[in-house]
Amino acid sequence: MEPVSLRPAQKGDGEALFEVTRRSVAALARHHYTQEQIAGWMGDRTPDYCETLIAQGQVVVAEFKGTIMGFVDSEPGEVTRLFLLPGVAGSGLGRKLLDIGIANARKGHSGPIKVESTINAEGFYRRHGFRTVKRGYFSHGLGGDPIEIIHMELSP
Question: What is the pTM of this model?
Answer without folding.
Answer: 0.91
